[in-house]
Structure to design on (353 residues):
């Protein structure tokens, strides 16, 4: 049963924050293998997943998004673990439901079921399309059975696949969020511009449309402006926190120009050597301000996200979070603070430090 104050009611009242980015953060913590990126953590280390959800919640995420990205039948076949598919999905959904219901801050958070790109969809192959549809349908069904308040379809780079996912989501009469991922050629891989694809999704009945993943704020924002000019209603924006550029618009092809002396063995920074290209909290805060000024109401950060960055977005959106208690207080720093009790002879070392 949906929450009395659901997604659309909240969006009418205020911006909504949704934390994504589980793949990279859990890989950094040692619970997901880079490259394979399969969410078996819900079975193998449920406490680690529960804690990350809780950390994102403390940082101000209004939505507890079940970590089922890549948790579809094709991916599990690829790694030879299809027998874990349904248990893994249900475990992730139950953990997300538990965390959403236990928010100590007052109003219960929303729990979202999650489906995503299948990496199987072929615009010229009806059989691949039907297989993708069946995967979406079973994952949506499990999400609803485990108490989802909304459904999120994300990281689609084919408009057709996004529309197919939306059809599966709409069978359950829950709010539907659909976000697209734009590759370096600035188009969906079946031809639409991102704005045209979002318009098609909106006309098909999606409640929230927008972009996530692949692009950092600098190279996502031009498309967001076009979408905002084209599409009525709530727009979603969840970039990756990396310094993408017009020459290198996605994090797949970002070069390391910081003088790295030990490049990755596979010859690219993605996904395991992006660290020097990471955006700081102030850059994410500035992006969140710009997004809000553009009229974007559904905000978050995707791959590379962490609770600190989610807190930055949430505070810009007007929230005082549990984690805000620990926002920076540089006034008492021993070298660079302004507190009158700080010893002047110690602070004098600041320029030499």
């Amino acid at each position: 049963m949906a929450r009395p104050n659901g997604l659309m009611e909240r969006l009418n009242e205020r911006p909504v924050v949704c934390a994504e980015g589980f793949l990279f953060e859990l890989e950094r913590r040692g619970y997901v293998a880079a490259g394979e990126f399969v969410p078996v953590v819900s079975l193998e280390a449920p406490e680690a997943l529960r804690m990350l959800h809780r950390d994102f919640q403390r940082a101000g995420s209004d939505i507890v998004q079940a970590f089922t990205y890549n948790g579809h039948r094709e991916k599990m076949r690829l790694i030879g673990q299809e027998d874990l598919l349904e248990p893994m999905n249900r475990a992730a959904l139950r953990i997300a439901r538990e965390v959403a219901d236990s928010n100590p801050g007052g109003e219960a958070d929303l729990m979202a079921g999650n489906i995503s790109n299948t990496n199987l969809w072929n615009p010229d192959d009806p059989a691949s399309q039907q297989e993708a549809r069946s995967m979406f349908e079973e994952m949506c069904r499990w999400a609803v059975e485990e108490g989802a308040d909304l459904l999120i379809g994300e990281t689609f780079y084919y408009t057709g696949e996004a529309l197919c996912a939306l059809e599966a989501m709409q069978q359950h009469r829950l709010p539907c969020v659909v976000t697209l991922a734009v590759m370096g050629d600035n188009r969906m891989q079946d031809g639409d511009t991102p704005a045209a694809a979002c318009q098609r999704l909106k006309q098909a009945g999606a409640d929230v449309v927008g972009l996530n993943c692949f692009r950092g704020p600098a190279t996502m924002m031009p498309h967001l402006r076009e979408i905002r000019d084209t599409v009525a209603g709530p727009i979603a924006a969840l970039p990756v926190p990396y310094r993408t550029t017009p020459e290198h618009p996605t994090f797949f092809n970002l070069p390391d120009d910081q003088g790295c002396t030990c490049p990755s063995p596979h010859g690219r920074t993605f996904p395991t050597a992006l660290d020097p290209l990471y955006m700081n909290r102030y850059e994410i805060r500035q992006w969140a301000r710009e997004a809000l000024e553009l009229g974007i109401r559904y905000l978050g950060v995707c791959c590379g996200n962490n609770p600190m960055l989610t807190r930055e977005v949430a505070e810009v959106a007007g929230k005082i979070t549990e984690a805000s208690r620990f926002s920076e207080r540089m006034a008492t720093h021993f070298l660079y603070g302004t507190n009158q009790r700080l010893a002047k002879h110690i602070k004098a070392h600041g320029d030499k430090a």
Remarks:
- The chain has a mean pLDDT of 95.
- The chain has 13 helices and eight strands.
- The first helix runs from residue 7 to 13.
